[in-house]
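C-ALPHA CELLS:
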Amino acid sequence: MSYAVLHIMKASGSCTAIARHIERSSHPDNAHPELRHLNRDDFIKYPDGVVGLGEAIQHRIDHAGHTRKVGKNQVLALNVLLSSDGEALRRLADEGRLNEWAEASVGWAKETFGSANVVGAHLHMDEQTPHLHVTVVPIVTTERRRKASEAKATKRYRTKPKNGPRLSADDIMTRDNLTSFQDTYAKAMERFGLERGVRGSEARHIDQHEYYRDCQRKKKALEIEVAELTTEKKKVSREKKALETSKENIQQETNLLIGKNEIYKSANERLCKDNETLAEENNILVTANDRLIPKVTELVERHDQLEKANAKLADDIARLEMQKSGKCRMQTW
C-alpha cells in the first residue's frame, strides 16, 4: 500500500527562493529540463494584474483585511507539499488519473485552508517523483493565542481584535492541526489507493533547503573527484602519448627489420640458386673425373712402361757407345 504524503514548510521574507523553485524560474539540479513541459500551474488563477507567485502571496496579504503590521521575519506563506511514492504516482499516470489526483489535492487544500488563502498550485513532473506544491497564505480569523510570557507581563498593551483576520502560521501549524491535516488528506486520497502514514513515525521529511545543501555537498565532493580524475586522465594521457611514441619507434624498427629481412631473404634465395648451380657443376665434374680415372691409370701405366723402355734404351745406347769407343782404340793401334 502506498502512502499519501503531506508536508508543510514555512516561507518567510519575500518568498523569492521558494517562488523560483516552484515556478521553475531557476532550474534545480535534480530536475530534468526535457520533462518541464509536463508541469502544470493552471490549478489556481491569479487575480487580474498579478504576475507570479510572489505577487499572488503579497496580493492576498494586502487584501485580507488584517490591520496588524507584517513583521520583517514573519511567515508569509506555507509551502504545502503533496505527493506519494513514485510507483503509486506512475500507476495513477498510467491509469490517466494523475491530473484527477492533483485536482483533488488542490480541492482538499482549499477546503482545509480556505480558497482565498490558496494562492498557487504547481504540479512538478520533471523530478524523479511527481509532486504538487500548494502555496497557502496563513490568514486566520480565530482568536489569537497568548504566549506564556504575555500572560505574566505586568505592562498591558492595547487590546487587539479577537476575531479579525490575522497572518499567523503558528495558529495553523499546531500539533493538533498537523495531525488533523494528515488524517483528512489521507481520507481524501483513499479513492486513489493511498493511505495515511504510520502515526508516530520517526521518518523525517528532508526539506528543500536541506536537500539542496546535501546536493551542494555532493556536488563539491564530485568536483573534487572530477579534479582528481582530470589529473589522472592527464597522467594517463601522457602515458598514452609516451606509449604511442614508443609504439611508433617500435613500428619503425620493425619496418627496418622487415626491410632487412627481405634483403636477407633475397640474398639467401640467390645463394641457394648459386649453391644448386655449383652442386650441379660439381656433379658434372665428379662424373667427368670418374670417367678420366681409367684413362689416367692407363696413361700412368704407359708412362711407367715408357720409363722402363727409356731406361733400357739408355742402357743400350750406353753399351753401344762403349762398344764404339772400344773399336776406335783398336784401329788406332
Q: What stands out?
A: The two ends are 176 Å apart (CA to CA). The first strand starts at residue 2 and ends at 3. Residues 310 and 316 are 10 Å apart (CA to CA).
